[in-house]
Design goal:
Layout lengths: L8 E6 L10 H7 L4 E4 L16 E4 L2 E2 L2 E2 L3 H13 L3 E6 L9 H10 L3 E5 L4 H8 L13 E5 L13 H7 L2 E5 L5 H10 L7 E6 L7 E6 L3 H7 L6 E5 L6 H4 L11 E4 L3 H13 L3 E4 L3 E4 L4 H9 L6 E4 L2 H14 L10 E4 L2 H9 L13 H10 L7 E7 L5 H8 L3 E12 L7 H8 L3 E4 L2 H9 L9 E4 L2 H9 L6 E2 L5 H14 L1
Parallel strand pairs: 1-6, 1-7, 2-3, 2-6, 8-9, 13-14, 13-20, 16-17, 16-18, 18-19, 20-21, 21-22
Antiparallel strand pairs: 4-5, 9-12, 10-11, 10-12, 15-19
Length: 507
């Protein structure tokens, strides 16, 4: 490949089987710096959020009977974009070289004398069975595994699958694709001597929150597929190891297994909630409804931060407020001691932790994560008359806190540290996925997430329940006609996740 014409390079990247946690570090690194991203139907669309804002994103999905681009067109696209001197990431579900036609794409690039790199991925051939509790090998059962595809080139005059050899080989056999041909494949296997009571399992959307498993034998698996209306994409496993799945199906034991939950937080903040929900087995659709922007009057905010050393107290009402405050503070000062003798109050454990991230102590933290609790705590502090208090918060916050502290005699200034605006970017196509696939629950972590989600005007999926982080958010939702199924007892992300888990354990 020393003969390359340009500085462009194409990366044939395995996107893994669907679970974001199974994407390689190298894959994410390349996505984060890509000029062009070409992705498949089986790629988890949440990965697209890792790409730079300016990256060109192209869907080249192919599924049975519906090809966005032919393989020849995909090859030509990769050659053209790489030839322009761009960094092209070709995302392919699973591993690019295992029934992914990555070899054809690599040959096209090599023939064009363009630089390319292959980044292997976790294949669904191993991961999907593992997530269904099926080890493809087991020392006491089988020491070899065979992979084959049930979906061959339609232009071939005869199958290249050697069914007599498969029957003779035995062991574990894993078939990718071909669910729609299960009856014919099972018949071929039986005709070539494979016993009818051989255990078989099919894993649909393996490793994701949509995972579904059906089990049977070679004799009845085609009937089971028809009865369950079991559709692609799925991996089929033939062999004695399938029987272990009844004991080892760890994924099905997770409390949120099979549940689809919508997260509406900002893109930067969604991760903490999404990760906890995925750890419990949920499929997460990240649909950010808001994003954080600088305040309308940045100069006024900067002036208040500059004078922060003159206050007796600084009150933070959210982690975003803490981040915005200290980002500005360290533009104005080099030393944390320039904050002076101001004491710090924080609403919520996440806010307090963000303060501690800057190696500062939180002097007042109410047990409840609402403004009213701050007022009660200040009353316990004694007389606050003439104390100077600076509140760093969002522009859209309620007036209750500064008003009540002012009533107690404090001299209160409000520093609008940031503002929340509607998120207009939907590069992961989360809205279309919600409309098409529905969801079991939607989470709201602030009043603004409620307002901005409803402003999108999306159809409300049948049966979708509402989970709220606390009473203020719940009241906003009720005012807009929503019914609250879940409200966190502790008004933070861990409290919300705990409440969701408790809800589904009862239902």
């Amino acid at each position: 490949m020393a003969d390359k014409k340009t500085n462009g390079r194409c990366y044939l990247v395995g996107a893994g089987p669907g679970d974001l946690g199974l994407v390689t570090l190298r894959a994410r690194q390349l996505i984060e710096r890509a000029d062009v991203l070409v992705y498949d139907y089986l790629c988890n669309p949440e990965m697209l959020a890792w790409a730079p804002e300016q990256a060109e994103i192209i869907y080249a999905g192919k599924k049975a009977g519906a090809h966005t681009l032919t393989q020849d067109e995909i090859n030509a696209l990769l050659v053209a974009k790489t030839g322009e001197g761009l960094e092209v990431v070709r995302l392919k579900g699973g591993d690019p070289f295992l029934f992914g036609r990555g070899g054809e794409e690599a040959l096209a690039l090599a023939e064009a004398k363009l630089a390319f790199e292959v980044v292997p991925g976790v294949t669904s051939a191993i991961a999907a069975p593992a997530y269904a509790g099926i080890p493809v090998t087991h020392r006491a059962i089988t020491s070899h595994v065979t992979f084959f595809t049930g979906h061959e080139d339609p232009e071939k005059t005869e199958s290249s699958i050697d069914f007599p050899a498969l029957a003779k080989l035995g062991g574990t056999q894993v078939m990718l694709m071909g669910v729609e041909r299960m009856e014919a494949i099972a018949q071929q296997m039986r005709e070539n001597g494979v016993r009818e009571d051989l255990p078989v399992a099919l894993v649909r959307w393996g490793t994701t929150g949509r995972q579904k498993v059906i089990r049977g034998t070679l004799q009845n698996i085609a009937q089971r597929v028809a009865e369950e209306n079991f559709e692609p994409p799925a991996v089929a496993v033939f062999g004695e190891v399938v029987s272990l799945g009844k004991e080892l199906d760890w994924r099905a034991q997770l409390p949120l297994s099979g549940k689809r939950i919508v997260v509406t937080r900002t893109r930067k903040q969604a991760g903490a909630l999404s990760d906890r929900l995925r750890d419990l087995g949920a499929e997460v659709i990240e649909l950010p409804t808001i994003r954080i922007e600088p305040p309308s009057d940045l100069r006024a905010f900067a002036e208040l931060v500059q004078d922060a050393h003159g206050y007796d107290w600084i009150v933070f009402t959210s982690p975003n407020g803490v981040s915005a405050f200290f980002e500005m503070f360290y533009k104005l000062y080099d030393d944390a001691r320039d904050l002076g003798a101001a004491r710090i109050a924080a609403i919520g454990s996440a806010t307090a932790q963000r303060v501690r991230d800057f190696h500062l102590k939180v002097d007042l933290q109410p047990a409840e994560f609402v403004a009213e609790a701050v007022v009660r705590e200040f009353k316990k502090e004694g007389d606050i008359e003439n104390l100077r208090i600076l509140i760093a918060r969002t522009e859209e916050a309620r007036d209750l806190l500064p008003r009540e502290l002012g009533t107690l005699g404090a001299i209160v200034d409000v520093a609008s540290a940031y503002r929340t605006v509607a998120e207009t970017n939907d590069r992961t196509e989360a809205r279309a996925r919600l409309a098409k696939e529905g969801a079991d629950m939607i989470t709201f972590t602030s009043s603004s997430t409620v307002e901005n989600f409803l402003a999108l005007g999306l159809p409300w999926p049948q049966g979708m329940q509402v989970a709220s982080i606390g009473p203020i958010t719940s009241q906003t939702a009720r005012n807009r006609g929503l019914t609250i199924a879940v409200e966190a007892r502790h008004y933070d992300v861990p409290g919300l996740v705990e409440a969701i888990g408790r809800f589904f354990s009862k239902h």
